[in-house]
Amino acid sequence: MFTTEIRLPELALLAGTRGALGAGVGLLLSDKLSEEQRKNIGWTLVAVGVLTTIPLAAMLFGRRRRSDA
């Protein structure tokens, strides 16, 4: 089994980036804004969510340790 220590600021960053990704997907699927506005904002949020999650995930997976259970 592997364990990973996550500090509170890192957890907040990870949650924030996942939230941006979710908000972007939600905007892409909604019909409250004009189609052009929705697509621009939605794809921007998706891109920010994905691009910021990748380095955070790499950092967290780099700290994994095998635990003796």
How would you characterize this protein structure?
It is a single chain. This protein is mainly alpha-helical and 69 residues long. 72% of the residues lie in helices and 6% in strands. The protein is built from two helices and two strands. The longest helix has 28 residues, at 35-62. It is elongated and about 55 Å long.
In summary, what is this structure?
By secondary structure, this protein is mainly α. Helix content is about 70%, strand content about 5%.
Give the amount of beta strand, in percent.
5-15%
Side by side, the strands of the main sheet go 1-2
Number of distinct beta strands: 2
Low-confidence stretches: none
Structure class? mainly alpha
Write down the overall mean pLDDT. Answer: 79
Helix fraction bin: over 70%
* Quaternary organisation: single chain
Our count of helices gives 2
Q: Major beta sheet, specifics?
A: 2 strands, antiparallel
State the end-to-end distance: 7 Å
- What is the CA-based Rg, rounded? 16 Å
